[in-house]
Design a protein that fits this description.
Elements: E1 2-8, E2 11-16, E3 28-37, H1 39-45, E4 62-69, E5 81-84, E6 87-88, H2 94-97, E7 116-117, E8 134-137, E9 145-146, H3 153-158, H4 162-172, E10 180-184, H5 188-199, E11 204-209, H6 212-222, E12 225-228, H7 235-242, E13 248-253, H8 263-271, H9 280-288, E14 289-297, H10 310-316, E15 319-322, H11 327-339, E16 349-354, H12 358-366, E17 374-378
The chain binds nicotinamide-adenine-dinucleotide and zinc ion (ZN) (2 copies).
Length: 384
């Protein structure tokens, strides 16, 4: 089968690989119909995630059709059309029982923090991902969700990560009616966080980025105010000026370790790798939120320490919430929002490319060319 293959930082290609097989009675094999590229894939592509092994296949956002199931699978059958949350999780451990699926204790032998993730290095279990024609889906009775007939495949694939992650980012903000919410990052996750903030009762939503076409998009898609940080000297002062001197009620980090905007942070966190990524947005969130406010973090950071102003957070009495998203927990509610017409996730898709063009697809998304927001890779068989 054809699959994306990592060769080293900024070097990826497609290659013929063996089609995955059922290795465990709980596995299913899924023929991929859609596979997105995520901002998280860019951290892999840029060589920032430890233990990203040459030869592996990325891709944690995919939909497909079940073509084979192991003898122990009870709820999925061949020909089912499924969307597969990016988390690999068991559904039965201490953490899964608390619906902390992203922290599953049984699916990632290499870490005590995050659970398994498809196509996301051996630090998250070493599972091959879905930027391929076929993918092995372990614990197939637990993760995959059968796609309702009236749900468009392009909406379904955005339910595997970007929309639920944006939603959880807003949810962790503990938004109360009328709150002012500032979202850092106008990538797909930030766009969905902004939209979700309204769904959760925000009274004002402000999105910050420096890529003008993305700010224009989010203005339209989420009807929010925007700030281009290139025009701002001091982010905390600017946000305070916009909020009667108090600061925002909630600040949300949808940027993570590769944040631009502070040279020293970029040097230490991205170029020299002396901390787990640039902590620029963590500073901006902690310093721009009002006293007693909440900072919600879904931007991804490395496992080591980061230089963050924890003293300010303590003295301001902030609540800090963060996690990888537990996708499955949000699906019933988010499917309902789509079916009710309150959101059309697929509008963020700007690029649709065949799997063969994976190298171009990463380059376009990474370099923010051609007004790219979200790219979907479509294996030839499913290309329409
Ligand atoms: N926690 C989770 O479960 C989860 C899931 C998916 C993605 N993520 C993470 O969320 C982040 C965003 O993902 P995405 O797919 O939207 O990525 P993306 O790369 O498309 O978007 C990131 C955006 O942040 C902007 N940005 C850079 N520096 C900034 C700054 N200082 N202030 C404001 N904006 C800035 C970029 O211009 C870009 O538009 C990534 O770190 C990704 O790894 C986390
Ligand atoms: Zn993702
Ligand atoms: Zn578990």
């Amino acid at each position: 089968m054809l699959a994306m293959e990592y060769r080293g930082p900024y070097r990826i290609r497609t290659r013929e690989k063996d089609r995955p097989r059922v290795e465990h009675p709980g596995d299913a094999i899924v023929r991929v119909s859609r596979a997105c590229i995520c901002g998280s894939d860019l951290h892999l592509y840029h060589g920032l995630v430890p233990d990203t092994r040459v030869g592996t296949t990325f891709g944690h956002e995919f939909t497909g059709t079940v073509v084979e199931v192991g003898s122990g699978v009870e709820h999925l059958k061949v020909n089912d059309k499924v969307l597969v949350p990016f988390n690999v999780f068991c559904g039965a451990c201490y953490f899964c029982k608390k619906e902390l699926y992203s922290n599953c204790h049984n699916t990632n032998p290499e870490a005590t923090a995050v659970g398994g993730i498809y196509g996301y290095s051996h630090t998250t279990g070493g599972y091959d991902g879905g930027q391929a024609e076929y993918v092995r889906v372990p614990m197939a009775d637990v993760g995959p969700t059968v796609i309702p007939d009236d749900l468009h495949l392009d909406d379904a694939v955005l339910l595997t990560d970007a929309f639920p992650t944006g939603y959880q980012a807003a949810e962790m903000g503990d938004i109360t009616e009328g709150d002012t919410v500032v979202v850092f990052g106008a990538g797909p996750v930030g766009i969905f966080a902004a939209k979700s903030a309204w769904l959760l009762g925000a009274g004002r939503v402000i999105v910050v980025d420096h890529v003008e076409y993305r700010l224009q998009f989010v203005q339209q898609f989420a009807h929010c105010e925007t700030v281009n940080f290139k025009d701002v000297r001091d982010m905390a002062v600017h946000i305070k000026k916009m909020t009667d001197g108090l600061g925002a009620d909630v600040c949300i980090d949808c940027v993570g370790c590769e944040a631009a905007g502070n040279l020293a942070q970029t040097l230490l966190g991205v170029k020299l790798k002396l901390q787990g990524g640039a902590a620029t947005v963590l500073h901006w969130c902690i310093n721009s939120v009002r006293k007693g406010g909440t900072v919600s973090i879904v931007g991804v950071y490395g496992p080591t320490f980061n230089a963050v102003p924890i003293g300010n957070a303590v003295n301001k009495g902030l609540t800090l919430r963060m996690n990888q998203a537990s996708v499955k927990r949000h699906l019933p509610r988010l499917i309902e929002h789509i079916q009710a017409g309150r959101i059309s996730p697929r509008e963020v898709i700007t690029h649709r490319l065949p799997l063969e063009a994976v190298a171009d697809a990463y380059h376009i998304f990474s370099s923010k060319l051609d007004n790219c927001i979200k790219t979907v890779l479509v294996p030839e068989e499913s290309f329409q």
